[in-house]
Amino acid sequence: MPPAQLDRTHAADARSWVESANDAASDFPIQNLPFGVFRPRGGDARIGVAIGDRVLDLRAVVGSCAIEFFMKPESEALGAACGADALNSLMALGSESAHALRVAIFDALSTDAPQAVQSALSDSLHPIGEVELLVPSRVGDYTDFYASIHHATNVGSMFRPDNPLLPNYKYVPIGYHGRASSIVPSGSPVRRPHGQTRDDASAPPSFGPSKRMDYELEVGIFVGKGNPLGDPIPIGEAWEHIFGLALVNDWSARDLQAWEYQPLGPFLAKNFATTVGGWVVTRDALAPFRAPAFARGDDDPAPLPYLSDSADQSAGGFAVTLEVWLSSDRMRAEGAKPVRLSRASFTGMYWTPAQLIAHHASSGCNLRPGDLLASGTVSGPAKDERGCMLELAWRGTEPVALPTGETRRFLEDGDEVVLRGYCERPGARRIGFGECRGIVTSAPPGSGRRP
Known about the structure:
single chain, 12 helices
């Protein structure tokens, strides 16, 4: 893994002629420039870059030739990728192309840009509140991991108090293949699913709406350059296959999960919806916020050689602060503000993103541009760092109090969950991930059987 490369795009004092980007509270200063896919009013899907409270329409930029970068012969493939309606083609071009594009956009949006460029690009900016954000890529495959040792220990202790972590956890990144077809963009309603549950061990299971809906605070890793089938990705090269990170809420039906997860793991409890944030923060933007890998205890085994890399151990983590906010129907009706349920750091993950990619491909599995890998629930050691309701309310035995006097053991219809993430450190400009939000709606009527 190469060392973090800092350049002029990371300068804390850099400013944009898009004035809203200079607000210290903005998630999208010029030092960020995350990529996403959006649909403007009356238009079709296209790639955009967030800057302040605006979205820069890359299709329009390429068509107008407002940035000379796109008129160079070597930029022809990049220009074509920017005109697409998903990020896959751009992701496939690799890290050097993504870096060159980000620098060109930075220069065009900087206060140092020629007035002619500023004037030309002004027509390619859309108010961010007036566009529809879509899933950033066509996700061909989705894998969800279980990379937080705090989450794994908490959940394990509920079911196996004497042996919370199974013997394989500290040796192998645990994951399962999710359902790509039910990945939805931020803001989509999430319908409570039907499924089999069994509350009474002495009685047969029943079929009906889940009573234990939950959220999971996660970070998504979007794959950039892929690998051929049969060719593993060495740990030292895994960094080159990461395009960027995004927020992910892997919704879960805990009662369905408890009945079906043995012996093959999650199925219907996880396949009904996964919400993805609209903005992908690139590796380049995250360079100032790289951090050491999780510090393993003296009694923990060292990673096996195919998962071990000194550079990854020294700077393979990302210092991202993650938050979960909730508002109920009643809270919104009474004008109460959303309540923050938890705040945790992505640095607490037992496995780094590079280790997840190297392990995934170690069998020869071919990762493809636009594939999504999720971290699994991000939790920390403290109670207010628990990244799902299962942990926070401790399997329903410690209800969470809301400002209206309501309590929550699990999510109820009308509950809106909002995930937020940001990076900050002295000497660097704060950058953010925007929001990943979804509201729980009631299960469809009936039992799911045909009339």
